[in-house]
C-alpha cells in the first residue's frame, strides 16, 4: 500500500479510529497496529508476510535465549544464527542473481564459459529495512545494551510497525520497542505535528519527486540522445527526485507514527545544505548511516585505529552501504565514490569540522554548492542502469559541446513540467532553509502554510501516473 | 482528541471548499474557451445546421479536411473528432453536439478495427476534456455508466476538485492559458481539423488484412442516437497503411478507405496520413459522399 494512494487514505482513518477506541488497552492497541501492519504489507504481496513473521520469531527466540545464556560461546552461536538467518534472507532474495551473474561474467572475462541459471526471484518490499531493524535488536541484546523483549506481541509490532516497515527509518529497538510497552495517551501537539509532517512529506513526494521523475526517467532511459546541459539538469533533477521521494516517505512515516503516539527518529536533516561530504552523511538517511556506524564501523575500530585501518574501515562502510542499496555494481561504485570523497576529510581530521553554524555566508554557499555537485556526480552512478552508461553520462556532461535544452522546451506540456519542477524545488529549498537557519529539527508548517501546501499538492502533484517510492526496491 | 478531530474536520472542510471553488472556476474558464473540442463545440454549434460532421479519434481528426470537402461540394461540415478517444467518447461527443444546439444531416463516425471489436470499452485518455460539462446530465450519466460511480471523472460531479486534481496539468494549468487566450484552440482549426506534418516515420509494414467485428456496445448507442435525431449515420474507416479492412455486416454503412492509398510518403505513421495524404484522401472522400 502506498502512502500516496486512495487505499491508504481509507486505511489510515480506520486504523486511527480503532486504535484510539481501544484507548488505555495496551495489548489491544498493539494487536490493532500489528494486524494493520500485516494488512498494509499484504496489500503489496501477502506471500512475503511469512518472511516478516519468520524474522520476528527467530529474533524473538534468539533475544530471549541470549538474555538467559551467560556462556560466551553459546551466545556467539545464537547471535550467529540471527545474523545467518536475516542476512541469509537478504542474500537470497536480493543478491542471489547478482552473485551468480557476476561469477559467470568474471569467468567469461578469463575466457571460461560457465553455465549457471539464475532464479526468477521477486524482491520482497522493505526486506533490507526490517532485516536491519531486527538485526539491530539482536546485536543490542547480545551486547547487553537492551533487555530482550518478553512480549511477543510488542516485539512483532516493533518489527512490522507499518509506518516505517517498508522504507524506514530503520528504528533501533532501544528507541522504539519500549514505546510498545507504554500505555498510549492521545497527544494533541504530537498528532498535529504529525499531520503537518505528513503534508510536507506528501508535497516532497508527489510534487517535487514525481514532477522531476518525468524528465529524469526520459533522460536516464536514453542519455545518448540528450545534450550536455540536459544531462547535467537530469542529474540535478534526480538529486531532488531521490531526496523528495525518500525523505518524503520518511516524513510521512514519522507523521503517521505520531498520530498513534509513537516517536520515530529523524531520517533526513537538510542534507543539501551540507558543506562537506562528512556533513552530508550526518544529514542523509541518518537511520542507515548510524546503523552502519554502530554495528560495522565502530566494531571495526572506526577512526581510532591506525591510518591504514581507518582507510579500510571507511571503504568497507561505504561499499557495504552502497551494496545495501541494490544488487548492482553501480551502487557499489556510488559507495566507493563517497568513500573517496570522505577519506581526505577524515585523514586531515576535518570530517567533524562543520558540526555547527547554519548561516549562509559566501564561503558556506560555495561549500554547499560544491558539496551538492559532488553528491550529484555520485547520484549519476546510483541512477544509471550500468557502469558503462554512468561513465558515458559523465563524459557527455563534461564535453559541454551541446548546450541546447530542447527536451525541456519540447512542448507546452514539457515546459509546464519543467516549470513546476523548478518551482517545487524552489519551494522545497526555501522552506527547508527557513527551518535549517532557525535550528529546527524538521520543517514546521503551521495551519496556513499547510493549507497552501495542500493546495499545491492537489494542483501541482502527479496523480495520473504516480511513481513508486524509489526506496521500495531496496 | 476532540480538539484534534474538530480541527481536522474544520480545516478539512475548508480545504475542500477552497479546492472545489477553484475547480469550479477552472470549469467556468474552460466552458468559456475553445481550447478543447468539447468547449469548442459548445461555443460554436448553437443554432448551426451542418450538412455533416465527422466524429472520431486522431484518425478522424487528421484524415478528413472538412474545409476542402466543403470547398469541393459546397457543403457545411465540422470535424468534431478528438485525439486519443474511442467510440464511447464519439457517442458522448455526438450527444454533446446535439445538446449544445447543433444539428446535422449526416454523421461520419471514424472507426478503428480494434475499437469496434472492444466489448468492454473503458476510459479514453482525453475524456477529461468533458469535465467542465460534468453538471450536464448526459455527461455525468455517461461517465457513471462507462467508468462507474467511483471513477475520478464521475466523482467530480460531487467533488469537482477530484477530477481537476487528477488531471491538474491538463485542466488546471491549461485553464490559465484559456483565461489569457479564450479563442486559442488546442491543435485544430476553426472547423475542427488538424493535420500531421509531412515529416514523420513513413510505415514499412507488409500487407495484412483484418475483418471488422462490430462488438462495441457504443455502436448501438450511436445508431439509436442518430436515428432519434434523423441523422444519416455512416462509419468511416480512415486510411491505414497496407491493411485491408473487411466487413461482413452489410447493414453497416461503411466508407472503407483502409487501403485506399498506398504511397508511404503520404503517411505520418502506419495509422495516420500526413498533410499530403489528408489532401489526397479528403478529395476521394468528398467525391464519394457527394454521391451519397
How does this model look, in words?
The complex is a heterodimer of chains A (474) and B (292). The model of chain A has no long low-confidence stretch (mean pLDDT 90). Chain A is built from 17 helices and no strands. With 474 residues, chain A is mainly alpha-helical. Helices cover 68% and strands 0% of the residues of chain A. Chain A has two domains: 6-184, no CATH class; 190-275 and 354-473, no CATH class. In chain B, helix 1 (2-31) packs across helix 9 (160-166), helix 1 crosses helix 10 and helix 4 crosses helix 12. Chain B has one domain. In chain B, a hairpin with a 2-residue loop joins strand 8 and strand 9. Chain B has a five-stranded parallel sheet. The A-B interface holds A 20, 186, 188, 191-192, 195, 412-413, 416-417, 420, 447, 451, 454-455, 458-461, 463-464 and B 1, 3-4, 7-8, 11, 14-15, 18-19, 22, 161, 164-169, 172-173, 177.
> For the terminal residues of chain B, how far apart are their CA atoms?
74 Å
CA-atom Rg of chain B in angstroms? 21 Å
Number of helices of chain B: 12
Relative helix content of chain B: 40-55%
Count of DSSP strands of chain A: 0
